Amino acid sequence: MTAPSRVLVREVRAETVIAAPPAVVWRVLTDFASYPAWNPFIRSIEGKPWVGTRLSVEIRPPERGSMRFRPTVLRVAKDRELRWIGRVLIAGLFDGEHRFTIVREGDGSRFIQAEVFTGLLVPVFDLTGSFRATGQGFLLMNQALKERAERAASGRPS
Length: 158
Hints:
single chain, alpha+beta, Alpha-D-Glucose-1,6-Bisphosphate, Chain A, domain 4, five-stranded antiparallel beta sheet, three-stranded antiparallel beta sheet, 4 helices, 8 strands, 36% strand, SRPBCC domain-containing protein, Polyketide_cyclase/dehydratase
């Protein structure tokens, strides 16, 4: 009889309803140069949101130190989705496929931020509380994005 395997997949997800149309949410989301002014979780992104591009991303989960990684953009669908994948050292060790999804909801939008983590090191990261901190970071970023997009949609200054 074999021992049960440890979970090697983990998803972290947060959703927010925003009183702004998808085009406004997209504009705020892809204005990487402004991230330091408003984003408490993703402190900076360098690069362009183009498929195949490698970005340089700095995150700062709550009560954790900053971390920088270089994901590759997988999908860009204007006003709808931005997706990238980041890896630690080699594929299969610890991979994270991050997606930002914007869905029209009435006159506004539903913003979904999610990441699916896979690989041999997933159980280790689970033990360190990293997924909990990442989820808190998603919530903080989603709230800040909501506030900034709603101000932009209303014509108020950021």
